[in-house]
Amino acid sequence: MAKKNSSYKKKVALPPGSLVHVGKASGTEVRLTVIAYDASQYYHTVIQDLSEVDAYAQRAAVTWLNIEGLHDTRLLEAIGNKHSIHPLTLEDILNTNQRPKADFFDEYVYFVLKMIRYDNVRKALDTEQISLVLLPNMVITFQEHPGDVLDPLRQRLEKAKGRVRHESADFLFYSIIDVIIDHYFVCLEDMGEEIEGLEAQALENPVPGLVPSLQHIKRDLLIMRKGVWPLREQITALLREEHPIIQASTAIYLRDLYDHTIAIIDTVESFRDMTFGLLDVYLSSLSNRMNEVMKVLTIIATIFIPLTFIAGIYGMNFQHMPELGMKWAYPVTLGVCAVIAGAMLVFFRRKHWL
Q1: Which residues does 201 contact at the CB level (< 8 Å), separation at least 6?
Q2: To 5 degrees, how large is the angle CA 23–CA 188–CA 4?
Q3: pLDDT tens per residue, the chain (354 residues)?
Q4: Could you tell me if 140 and 79 are in contact, meaning their C-beta atoms sit under 8 angstroms apart?
Q5: pTM for this one?
Q6: Which of 20, 28, 287, 315 is most open to solvent, judged by the fewest CB atoms within 10 Å of its CB?
Q7: Which runs of consecutive H residues, i.e. helices, occur in the chain?
Q8: Under the phi-then-psi rule, with left for phi > 0, alpha for psi from -120 to 50, and beta for the rest, what region is 162?
Q9: Closest CA to 170 of 111, 232, 229, 93
């Protein structure tokens, strides 16, 4: 039996800031990964205890602590105490049903958004909440489950490509958000290919199985829309808020995130319009096919009306029917039927009913 998601019922009557995990447990142990770097050195390791982070933070200028799994509330409480993270922020991290948002505190900046991946096998979206805490020289990321879309960023850090190794923690904060948002484009590209395939199927072979596929992709687009629309406002908040941790040089790159978000929203809306249109195309195709079938059946029935009339006359059991005694009565009757059917077919074709 599948594990149920942690319920809001656990939070009822608890005071604000109570640490209760609301979401689906990963089923694995919490995994802590540290990446520490500056322009000349780079460290990447899995740690077993929070105390190991300090050793790497002292060696390099920027530290990235990544936590996979949110069910260990004691660990999150320890992180909060160590880095002076407000209990309400920790509560938001544990609640995996958050909308994208940005919160600003004196010591740190908190940002949460959805990490979305497209499963080409199941033809469905996988969504996961990721929370980021930006500190003066550190970024802490909190993920629900193992695995993410951040490997390209890790490779850039390891190979010292781009600017990220030469910048402070706020640029790493931006880079993580940028990779996640860029992956939205990858998801939309895969979904666009599926929509094109459904469009071709709707026009050429509108089978009943098309409707569930359309409904499925409409639901995925709704998930994408719910994840992106609030994100636009929160990136605007990052641009508007003059926080000392976020440097002016990084704010320029945040504007690029805003542009990407607008482009994603436009694409999502276009795809939603296409899926609604595809349903209309599917219904129209079914109607056209039904009309073609009914036209053929109607023509056949119309042709057989006079033939049935003739057959009905000579099927009557009257004793005095002179035609019954004629030698050529039967082939003549069949010939008349054939001429009538042929004449009707010619008439239908001239009227463009065939």
Answers
A1: 207, 210
A2: 15
A3: 334 455 555 655 566 656 766 767 666 788 999 999 999 999 999 998 888 999 998 988 999 999 998 888 899 999 999 999 999 999 999 988 889 999 999 999 999 999 998 887 887 888 999 999 999 999 999 998 888 999 999 999 999 888 899 999 999 999 999 999 999 999 999 989 888 888 888 877 777 778 888 888 889 999 999 989 999 999 999 988 888 999 988 988 999 999 999 999 999 999 998 888 888 887 787 787 788 888 888 888 988 898 888 888 877 877 777 777 777 888 888 888 899 988 988 888 888 777
A4: yes
A5: 0.79
A6: 315
A7: 51-59, 73-83, 87-94, 151-159, 169-204, 210-240, 248-313, 329-350
A8: left
A9: 111
List, as own/partner pairs, every contact residues 95-98 make where C-beta atoms lie below 8 angstroms and the sequence separation is at least 24, other chains included.
95/22, 95/23, 96/21, 96/22, 96/23, 96/24, 96/70, 96/128, 96/129, 96/144, 97/22, 97/23, 97/129, 98/129, 98/131
